[in-house]
Amino acid sequence: MKQLSKKTNDRHRDGKDWLADAVKMRPMESSSRRLDAFVDAMFEEVASFMKVSSRTRQTKALRAVLLNLINAHHLDRPVRYSRNKNRYTRDRRYGQHHYTYDRLIPIIDALERLGYIEQSSYYKDPDDDRYGLQTRMWGTELLWARCRRYRVTHYFGLALNPPEEKEVIVLRNKEKQDRPYRETHQTRQMRDDLERYNGFIDRNFISVRLTGDSIVDNRWLVENLYQNISKSETWIQSVILNNSHSKYKYTTPIPTFTKHLLPFHTNPYRIIQSTRDRIPINNPIPITNTKRGKVLLDVLLQRFWSEAHFFEKDLYKRSIEIGRIPLDKRRKVLDVKSPLQDIGVDELVFVLDHEHLRRIFNRESWEYGGRAYGALHQSMLRRPMRKNVLIDGEPTVEIDYSAFHIRMLYHREGIDYTDDPYLECEGHEMRDIYKAVGLIAINSTERDACGAIRDELENRGLAPPDREKPYASLVSGFKQTHPAIAHHLFSDVGIRLQNIDSIIMNAILVRLMDNGILGLPVYDSVIVQQQHGTFTREVMTEEYRKQTGFNPKF
User: Fold this and answer.
1) What is the mean pLDDT of residues 113-122?
2) Which range, 87-91, 148-152, 161-165, 197-201, is most confident?
3) Is the dihedral of CA 258, 259, 262, 264 positive or negative?
4) How far is the CA of 365 from the CAs of 18, 174, 219, 289, 301, in angstroms?
5) Are 159 and 273 in contact (CB under 8 A)?
6) Using CA atoms in the order 221, 225, 230, 231, what is the torsion angle rounded to 10 degrees?
């Protein structure tokens, strides 16, 4: 790999350090046949610069690299990746055998030698040390010319699929790398429970309905909603637009095609891509005269004469415009909040297509962690949005344990604590602050507590108390209010408590599933259809009592 000059490394675009603002490379997959043809053609060139040991896996690796480059190109940003072999350590049980150092790095270097990409080696972010030294790469005009030839210039239409995660029980070390482990009755039982759950959730339809008064910010619109749409992990089922902005002026199509405005019940882009890929690129026959062409036209009319499509176009434009704002100014723009109706939306319904769970254990121990992660309702939805979740079109209720871990510590000491642990500290006015302190008390150490509290209060928009050494006073105040469990606080006890709550949650989900009820877990709460609220509360009480000997509070 050639070393770029310092002048190139430090170049600025639109007044920002372009190389610092890079997109992290990640596993990406696509079922697009057009992309398959493009990758096959590119592989013939790349193969002449490297040893071909497994064509199938090396082709998948090349596809992942190209998809990352296409994605970053539309955001006007480079791709960042590591050339440290240790970062690619992965046991065979976790799949993604193509995404390895020995397959990715030779492909990337071959693309550079062919003139399809440029690289900047070992570039360090000036304001962020989290990622260490990482290389930047970006496509050249030669690559984009090849993309245009195969009509794969926009990854939004490339039928992206979430990367396949074969293993649902994951054991990680302190560096958060997936580690091998020996199968036991415990691991097989956990896997069986979770695979049954993932199969069960596939038979349900999870959506979210937001009204015009729902508060959203640009960060959620761009980094959550749009990015998950582009990754085919969610899709917009319907939108009701208003006329608050000229870009949302909408005209109903001619009456002949009014039937095409019916809402979808599956991701329309998968239908469009699947049908389009089966029509030859140089097809001399008008597509309306072919069976597949008529299917494609029908879906296109239904989707692209819909308000959902107008809104998707706006999300795309919003993402591009914000992405081009200098990094130091972009954060303020991303944090701008407004009701949906102020950006032209009276109602938005989107579908969550990626709801499978994986249980992740930490520090190479089955006694640390174990919570289930991976579902969009956990990562994509802000807390106020969760009340708008629909399961099979029915309204839901979220039932959550009150002061889950604090109360659990008391119960481990044999004390049936029933008060509000945050209100008891310094009264109602300080409750929100001490709730943040309580989170840090469970998950941090004494040494890191003050800095962690400062960051948590800032994230929640809360000001620290106006007193000398405010953060240290909060630490001591919380411990003095709870002397019976003070020896547990600020001792990193949270990762052990997560193991207990993961056992409780797994039992809850399995019992609900065995009764034909879908529960959506959010760590210390469960979302179910409203009609199942009472039964779910009973199940949550019983499973908590099995582990602690006490009843919980909700």
Assistant:
1) 89
2) 197-201
3) negative
4) 41, 10, 35, 61, 54
5) yes
6) 140
